[in-house]
């Protein structure tokens, strides 16, 4: 009695037992595809880290190139360019070279002064570090020497007491 409605339904709705087998195969394929997706997606973190490292290196290279282009082409003043302070030299060409030499000497003197100041600062820092290290080493040596002296006196007293007894 129960087979009749199923058979009737199968003939009316064009539903057969092979359809169930096909759905089972589709479900098995779906599980396999899901497993492949999960396996591939588990590697996305590593791939994203590799991509981030690649992009950082690329950005560093591009920023270095951009820095050199900016310094060489945009931020540098050509030697034949006259700044507003140098406008009077336009009229007096004979003094132009003399002014350039004086300007160059002034810049070199200022750079030398800055270098000397930085050297003095470095020497002061090195001197402070040296004094600290020397004082620390001397203090440590004094503490060690006093400790050893006390140990030697204690040993001497013990030996002296043993000899007297």
UniProtKB/TrEMBL annotation:
It comes from the Eukaryota. This is Protein MIS12 homolog. It comes from Salmo trutta. The lineage of its organism: Eukaryota, Metazoa, Chordata, Craniata, Vertebrata.
